[in-house]
Amino acid sequence: MRTIPLDTVRGTVCKLYIDACYRLNDDMRKAFKDAAKTEVNPQGREILQMISENAEIAEKEWLPICQDTGLAVVYVELGEEVRFDRPGLKEAINQGVRQACKEGLLRASVAKDPLRRGNTGDNTPAIIHIDMVPGDKMKLTVGAKGTGSENMSRVKILTPSAGMEGVKNFVLEAVTQGGSNPCPPLVVGVGIGGNLETVAEIAKKSLYRPLKDKNKDPYYARLEEDWLKEINKSGVGPQGLGGSTTALAVHIEALPCHIGALPVAVNIDCHAHRHKEAVL
Amino acid sequence: MMSESKLYKLKPPLKDSDLMPLKIGDKVLITGLMYGCRDAAHKNMVEMLDKGQPLPVDLRGQILYYVGPTPAPKGRPIGAAGPTTSGRMDAYAPRMYDYGVKATVGKGTRAEPVVKSMVKNKAVYLVAIGGLGATLASKIKAAKVAAWPELGTEALWEFKVEDFPAIVANDVNGRDIYKENVKYWAEKLK
């Protein structure tokens, strides 16, 4: 067994969350530059340029990339040979988020209650996913998930007869009906299979793959490529103001499912696609 | 949509004559006051209007900016301050235009009743580029909470801005940039 101090977990979550909000990953910065070369609408090219510059300004002047510093979505891949120096893993993660909100001047964006609203004041609680894996390491991934794009996400249980075409249409509809609202160019996470709760989980998790990573199954890798092309023919374009860069990537994850169901989830992320990870 | 876009400077308070020439796709630079507000402040404002009470600030002729900024770092008036999704304010917007607000700034499409309200009130909807939190913060030269500090980021803010850039998305003639542009480019990309 290996012991990891929970203070290290707290400090790492804090650092990753702040880092995610202030410094956009290189794969996204490169994708903006590449898209600016292929975008057909001159106004779209201008917008891609502005988005690209915003990432530079954020890092240089140390301001958040976007004022919606999101809900903190934290993934823990916990090695089975890891133990902690004291109880309270989830509390340590929430302490890290609280500290990041305060020290990183992130926005307090969590309503205390869905109907009675109010604000928790420190962006907790985080959304925490814990998965046990073999080994003595711990991997932490922190995503800052804005709600402009989350609000345009959707989940549905189709019937098996809907097949690949049915799933594809559901995905295209989510993107085109979302239009300008989720701040394109987008990263589109798609979950297929599992059940009601797992299909949404895998759609979200797929977002946090490196941008250009493909599904390991060539069948799904091909669908990712084809659907990206179709999405980029929709005309939505950068910021929904028209053009050929509606999405930068489509990520699909699939799971076995019940013989009577075909669950699908589309989790959309905006161009401020923020996530960082660390291994302890 | 292919007509040449023009550049206009807007300095609130705005009159009908300031907005009549604006066409979708035109660029504007705003200098002067803009009032920041989002879901919670809108709820308060519309409740006050419904009760016939005066608003905490006279917003007639003014511009509302749909935003919830991050806290100000030392030495800056405000943190990141890009636009939020305007559609969430659609439920309140016709009421605000009827009251006398002349322009709103946000991102994303507006519902039909909002577009109609703009035609009726000779008002406009402008879009700022979503996600430009750091860039747009630099256009805000001063910021203070005008009402409801307990709402935190959702308070009613008063911003002094200089050359704040936006694009006309719905004009006084009821045209819609999103509908026209996406249709045009979808045809072209077929």
Mean pLDDT of chain B: 96
Poorly predicted parts of chain B: none
What oligomeric arrangement do these chains adopt?
heterodimer
What is the overall shape of chain A?
Answer: globular
Secondary structure: number of strands of chain B = 7
Greatest interface (CB-CB under 8 A), with counts per chain: A-B, 47 and 47 residues
Give the CA-CA distance, first to last residue of chain A.
Answer: 14 Å
Number of domain units of chain B: 1
Query: What is the residue-mean pLDDT of chain A, rounded to a whole number?
Result: 98
- Range of helix content of chain B: 25-40%
> Percent of residues of chain A in helical segments?
25-40%
Strand order of the largest sheet of chain B: 2-3-4-5-7
The rough form of chain B would be described as globular
Helical stretch tally of chain A:
8
CATH class term of chain B: Alpha Beta
Rg measurement of chain A, Å: 19 Å
SS-derived structural category of chain B: alpha/beta
